[in-house]
Amino acid sequence: MDINEFLTEIYTDAQHNPFPFSLERTLAQYIYDATDETSKTLETGAGLSTVIFALKGTQHTCVTPDKNAVVNMLAYCKQKNISVERIDFQIQRSEDALPHLQLKDLDLVLIDGRHAFPTPFIDWYYASSGLKNGGILIIDDTNVWTGKILEEFLCLEAEWQLVKRIRERAVIFIKKAGGGHAKEFHQQPFVMLKSVSQDAGIPCCWRAAHQALGLLYNGKILTLIQKIIYRIRLYYYYGPQRQKKHK
Ligand SMILES: C[S@@+](CC[C@H](N)C(=O)[O-])C[C@H]1O[C@@H](n2cnc3c(N)ncnc32)[C@H](O)[C@@H]1O
Question: Are 84 and 59 contacting, i.e. CB atoms less than 8 angstroms apart?
Answer without folding.
Answer: no
